[in-house]
Amino acid sequence: MEVVKVENVTKTYQVGKVETLALNHVSFSIENGEFTALVGPSGSGKTTLLQLIGCLDQPTSGQVFINGKEVSRLNRNQRADMRRGTIGFIFQFFALIPTLTAYENVEMPLLLTGQGPSERRERVMQLLQAVDLADRANHRPDQLSGGQQQRVAIARALATKPTLILADEPTANLDTNNGRQVMEIMERLNQETGVTFIFATHDPRVIKYARRVIRLQDGMVAENGALEKVSVGD
Questions:
Q1: Is the overall model pTM greater than 0.70, yes or no?
Q2: Which tens digit of pLDDT belongs to each residue from 67-82?
Q3: Burial class, 133, CB count within 10 angstroms (exposed 0-12 / middle 13-18 / buried 19+)
Q4: Across the beta sheet with 212-217, what order do the strands follow?
Q5: Are strands 61-66 and 69-70 parallel, antiparallel or unpaired?
Q6: Cα–Cα dist 102/145, whole Å
Q7: Which residues does 207 contact at the CB level (< 8 Å), separation at least 6?
Q8: CA separation for the pair 158, 212 (Å, rounded)
Q9: Is residue 232 included in any domain, yes or no?
Q10: Is 196 within 8 Å of 5 (Cβ atoms)?
Q11: Residue 21, Cβ neighbours under 10 Å: how many?
């Protein structure tokens, strides 16, 4: 089943009188359970594409489908509903709420869905155990390392059992060891839960974890295929 379908998508930005072409007639689809890397140098369109798939923005032309539903023409409230129920996000800078504990950060999406206290607790602790942080449940972000913060962010992204996780440069602010741990956890959770992962990166050390690579260059798809068939150097 296609979780994501991007069909002839173009995205332009207007700043004053200057128009910038970020994506140029991009098309591809991603099946349920894939572990896919969007790769390419800075400015190639990776983040723009994730924002369109994640219902954070709309294309200038073309269509984006999530689980068979066209999301590219939804209004702001409809896009928010789609994000809340279907898509989890992992950001480069973790985006945790600094005044909340790891437990409370993971719990936050569940509060928005109206789950009861016992259900929330069971789900949160299950996720913290899955990212090896159950013993850090009561620690705030400033009491955690960067790698631990990103693992909390992974648990939070999975809280509502989304079908799709989007990760934008998830290891960019981590050292080699923490970056490896984060990728191994994401890979394991993909295999155990079947949730689809799409992650944007330009780091060859991260790309090697992907089972499929979509390479962007100048806003267009330059290569699309299994990792062993696609070059990983920028």
A1: yes
A2: 999 998 888 899 988 8
A3: buried
A4: 87-90, 164-168, 196-201, 35-39, 212-217, 220-226
A5: antiparallel
A6: 12
A7: 37, 39, 201, 213, 227, 232
A8: 21
A9: no
A10: no
A11: 14
Quick check: is 172 in a domain?
Answer: yes
Q: Which residues contact 156 (CB under 8 A, 6 or more apart)?
A: 88, 96, 105, 106, 108, 109, 127
In the chain, the N- to C-terminal Cα span, in Å, equals 31
The string over 85-98, giving b where at least 16 C-beta atoms fall within 10 Å of a residue's C-beta and e elsewhere, is: ebbbbbbbebebee
**Contact present, 221 and 214 (Cβ < 8 Å):** yes
Residue 171, domain member (yes or no):
yes
**Cβ-contact 121, 106 below 8 angstroms:** no
Provide the domain limits for residue 38: 2-227
The token pair at 23 is: 């994506």
pLDDT tens digits, one per residue of 132-187: 999 999 999 999 999 999 999 999 999 999 999 999 999 988 999 999 999 999 99
Q: How far is CA 20 from CA 9, 44, 127, in A?
A: 15, 12, 41
CA–CA dist 64, 54 (Å, integer): 10
Alpha helices in 36-175 (DSSP H): 46-53, 76-86, 102-113, 117-130, 146-158
How many domains does the structure of the chain reveal?
A: 1
Provide the token pair at 212. 């499929």
Q: Residue 161 sits in a domain of what CATH number?
A: 3.40.50.300
50 three-state secondary structure: helix
Within-domain flag for 142: yes
